[in-house]
Amino acid sequence: MNTAKALRLKSKINWTSDQFLFHPRRNRTIIYDLNALTALEHYMQKTLSDITIKHTPTKVVFQQYYYTNATQGQRRELEDTANGSTKGNNEIFNSTALNKLKERLSRLYNKDVEFNLIKQHYPYLNSKILAQYIALNASRYRFRQIRRSLFKKIPLVGGNPQQNDLNATSALRWIQLSRLGQQILPTHLSGVKIQISGRMSLRKGSARTSVINKSIGSFRFHSLKNTMIDYAKVERKNQNGAYCVKVWLSSSVVT
């Protein structure tokens, strides 16, 4: 009896359906961006920062910072130009290959494509570049040698050395710091922290996993108005296994 009643009630339910239509070109833009990022990474083959893509109705702009050990001739040419100008960048990169890449991306997006490639003269000006720089050199040099070489060259300004609390910073705090970094302008570097974890030994067959933390300068997390934190993580593999490089850069900002 109950079963028959349930069947009768079920037949009286008015079913409704909703349809959602998405613009096909907007959906494809995400896929296009992923393909473009992969193509740029294979083309550059240099220590790169995260790529920023800006879409306009008629143009797509790719902006990226990069670092490379330039020769003396290239350094003189870069000194004659403005900081990271287009002329200096075209002399470092193969213009023929860059134009071919631009043509292919233009056909992909059906728009004009513009590259804004800005050279960083020092690896410690960007956390992603510094993390990649350390990861690449970790396969040839010991971390102690890399640390000494970097810490001698990094010009820190202001602040007294104090114990940092990076590991105690909550996830919400990191979100606040990252949002703050998009609204303010950094003036100078005040602190650097490097952490390498994993199998980093240069000796083949070594299976020991270790964690190394080194820092220089000061980190101020209680004053969001005067500090900006730039964080990046890079993972690499060597003959013994995988290792991870994390970098924090603390910069004083214009208030």
From TrEMBL:
<dbReference type="GO" id="GO:1990904">
    <property type="term" value="C:ribonucleoprotein complex"/>
</dbReference>
<dbReference type="GO" id="GO:0005739">
    <property type="term" value="C:mitochondrion"/>
</dbReference>
<protein>
    <recommendedName>
        <fullName>Small ribosomal subunit protein uS3m</fullName>
    </recommendedName>
</protein>
<dbReference type="InterPro" id="IPR007980">
    <property type="entry name" value="Ribosomal_uS3m_fun"/>
</dbReference>
<dbReference type="GO" id="GO:0003735">
    <property type="term" value="F:structural constituent of ribosome"/>
</dbReference>
<dbReference type="GO" id="GO:0006412">
    <property type="term" value="P:translation"/>
</dbReference>
<dbReference type="Pfam" id="PF05316">
    <property type="entry name" value="VAR1"/>
</dbReference>
<keyword id="KW-0687">Ribonucleoprotein</keyword>
<dbReference type="GO" id="GO:0005840">
    <property type="term" value="C:ribosome"/>
</dbReference>
<keyword id="KW-0689">Ribosomal protein</keyword>
<comment type="similarity">
    <text>Belongs to the universal ribosomal protein uS3 family.</text>
</comment>
<dbReference type="InterPro" id="IPR036419">
    <property type="entry name" value="Ribosomal_S3_C_sf"/>
</dbReference>
<keyword id="KW-0496">Mitochondrion</keyword>
